[in-house]
Amino acid sequence: MTEKQAAPVPLRPMSGNEMAEPASPKPKSKASRRRTIIKAAFLLVVAVPLLIASFYLFWVAGDQYASKTGFVVRKSDKTATTAAELLGGLTSITQASSTESTILYEFIRSQHMVELVDEKLDLRTIYSRPDFDPIFAFDPDGSIEKLERYWARMVRPHFDSSSGLLELRVLAFNPDDARRIAEEIVRQSSIKINDMSAVARSDRTSYAREDLEKTINVLKAARQSMTEFRSRNRIVDPKADVQVQMGLISTLQTQLADAMIELDMLNLTTRNEDPRINQVEQRISVIRSRIDAERGQIGVGSGYAGGEETFSQILEEFESLSVDLEFAERAYVAALATYDEALAEANRQSLYLATYIEPTRAETSEYPRRFTLLSLMALFLGLAWAIGSLIAYSVWDRH
Fold it and tell me: Nearest 5°: phi and psi at 71?
């Protein structure tokens, strides 16, 4: 043995406990098995699904093109003239259009809109063109409920309640199809707004129209009653006849006064045997008889109703009918003015759809957002794997 060689180490005798408990590799095998399970779980839960999703998104999924449009429901207000009134009118328009825009927002998402667009453009054919795409494409044999759910994925409206603006994004596998769908949605929305405007206009004018129709019927009845009165009594205007009769009586009274003056003059200037006195007396008698006859004709309607009805009663009935006719005419004029005003107000507040962004045509495919989807998928799968691993280690530690 050389000097550099180390001296032998004396062996220590082993105790009884050390001889009874030999060293065991069991803990190392458990840890290794656990690590193997965790790695296998990572491959199954994270890596393999991400590889499958990547293959599907980049090699199978069809490109989707977006068409965007924007519109707002406006209310035409022709009453604003000054700048301040115009500004106030625009403010009231925005506030008034919020409810209609909300209705339109729900209408775009409804099944009825899907049916209308599908009837016009055949959505099942448009959205089922990539036959090899089982996730993003639509099954052409699907029901209307499935098409409605698919519609909610491909058509995304956004409504700003503060401004009343409504923006729309439409996806399709062809840019022209996307723009056609967006244009059809705008057209159907405009029809819906016009229908709503027509209903609102009808509601605003319905009461005025009913009042006008009632006054028209009353006016017709009053005119018919006046026509029947004139036909029955063979007279157009009793008041005019009374004026004629009174004028005749006034003329006769004037002639009677002249004849009486003439008689007095003859009595003063001539003898009683003068034949002119007899003539004047006969004339006075005839004039008085005529006056009595004319007055009697006014009092008795023998010339108008066969003597069965006095002229005063005829005149009273005519005045009553005249009052009814005049009242009916005034009521008709007032109702017509009210109806015209209500109609003008309804026309001033009619709704219309103002498109501030025409449906666009995409040149590049922006959807599906492949990297975004993969990132989100990796995040959620990684979280699921991490949580599962923590739960597994917790269970292992307890056992």
Answer: -155, 170
- Whats the size of the chain, residue-wise? 399
- pLDDT one-digit tens code per residue, 244-265: 667 777 887 888 888 888 878 8
* Contact present, 186 and 71 (Cβ < 8 Å): yes
**What is the SS3 assignment for 161?**
coil
Angle between helices 175-233 and 311-348 (to 10 degrees): 170
Q: Residue 247 and residue 257: Cα distance in Å, rounded?
A: 15
Tokens found for residue 262? 């003439």
| Inter-axis angle of helices 26-42 and 370-398, nearest 10 | 160
Q: Are 72 and 101 in contact (CB under 8 A)?
A: yes
* Residue in the block written with tokens 């009913």: 210
pLDDT in tens, 168-198: 999 998 899 999 999 999 999 999 988 888 8
Strand order in the sheet with 351-357: 155-159, 165-172, 65-75, 351-357
Residue 306, SS3?
coil
Q: For residue 368, is the peptide bond before it cis, meaning its omega torsion is within 30 degrees of 0?
A: yes
Residue owning tokens 């017509």: 336
Per-residue pLDDT tens digits for 30-47 = 778 878 888 888 888 888
The model's pTM: 0.58
Element holding 73 (H helix, E strand): strand 65-75
Contact 197, 352 (CB under 8 A): yes
